Amino acid sequence: MKVTVNDSCIACGACESVCDAVFSVDDKAKVNTASISGNEDCVKEAADCCPVNAIEVE
Predict the structure, then answer these.
(1) Of the four listed, 12, 17, 20, 23, which is most buried by Cβ atoms within 10 Å?
(2) What is the dihedral of CA 35, 23, 17, 46, to 10 degrees?
(3) In angstroms, rounded to a whole number, what is the distance separating the alpha carbons of residues 25 and 5?
C-alpha cells in the first residue's frame, strides 16, 4: 500500500485522530511509511474522513 498526502491538506488533524500510528500533523499531514503495514484499515478510514480528500491510497 502506498499512501501520500497531497497539497490540498489543511492540517485539520482528522487523519491523526483516526490513525495516529501512521499520520502526524504539523503544517501538513505526514505519513510514517514504516507503520502502514498492519494499519491498512485505519489508513483507509483516515482517507475516507479527510474533508479535502488530501490522502491518496494506492
Answers:
(1) 23
(2) -90
(3) 11
pLDDT digits (tens, 9 = 90+) for 2-53: 999 999 999 999 999 999 999 999 999 999 999 999 999 999 999 999 999 9
pTM: 0.94
Helices (H), the chain: 14-18, 40-49
Q: What CATH number is associated with residue 23?
A: 3.30.70.20
pLDDT of amino acid 35: 98
Which residue, among 5, 1, 2, has the nearest Cα to 16 in the 3D structure? Answer: 5
Question: Which residue range is the domain that position 19 belongs to?
Answer: 3-57
Domain count, the chain: 1
CA distance 39 to 8: 23
